[in-house]
Amino acid sequence: MNEATHPASTDIDRSHYPHRSGWIEVICGPMFSGKTEELIRRLRRAQIAKQEVAIFKPQIDDRFSADHLVSHSDSSLPSTSVRSAREIMEKLGNATVLGIDEAQFFGNELVEICRKLAAQGCRVIVAGLDQDYRCDPFEPVPQLLAEAEYITKTLAICVKCGAPGSRTQRLSTESERVIVGAQDRYEARCRYCHEILADDQS
Ligand SMILES: [Zn+2]
């Protein structure tokens, strides 16, 4: 792949873009695939370049830290927890580079907010699950994928067989779509090894 067009390998430098428009980058994949780590990596590069960076995550996600974005491998950046996507607009300040983690918890309102932010010149980097535990599209990430200029799909490693893990295996039988948790409730699996254990399976 051409290095210059791939944000994961080069990080986008706004000065290369003569127009005033912003854009949307989506980092998606299953749990344990390094989405937050990749988001932190891109945001750090922007900070090093002295760009104004703001980082948001939904309040539902307090697994690790209320005011930091923390990846499973322990890299972290200060972040703001918000109750809704609309709150991002209110707390944006002067930021021109925005990181939004756990996009799947924001609902479809996030699509319109990202569109507005990109239209006003922001670089918007969104990370989130593209599928739920049943492998159904987990909105609003699929809608954001359709809207985004740059897409990165991260893969984990299947804990059963070692193949590329594109799916999140829920280890318990609850059928609610959202159950917040980490290692003890979920693991990464490949297409072949993934199974749905939910009670309401039909
Ligand atoms: Zn497997």
Automatic annotation (TrEMBL):
ATP binds at G29, P30, M31, F32, S33, G34, K35, T36, D101, E102, A103, Q104. The active site is at E102. It is found in: Cytoplasm. One of its GO terms (molecular function) is ATP binding. Zn(2+) binds at C158, C161, C190, C193. Its EC number is 2.7.1.21. Substrate binds at V178, I179, V180, G181, Y186. It holds the Pfam family TK. Keywords: ATP-binding, Cytoplasm, DNA synthesis, Kinase, Metal-binding, Nucleotide-binding, Transferase, Zinc. The keyword Kinase applies. Its main location: cytoplasm. The keyword Kinase applies. GO terms for biological process: DNA biosynthetic process; thymidine metabolic process. InterPro entries: P-loop_NTPase, Thymidine_kinase, Thymidine_kinase_CS. PANTHER family: THYMIDINE KINASE, THYMIDINE KINASE, CYTOSOLIC. Homotetramer. Belongs to the thymidine kinase family. This is Thymidine kinase.
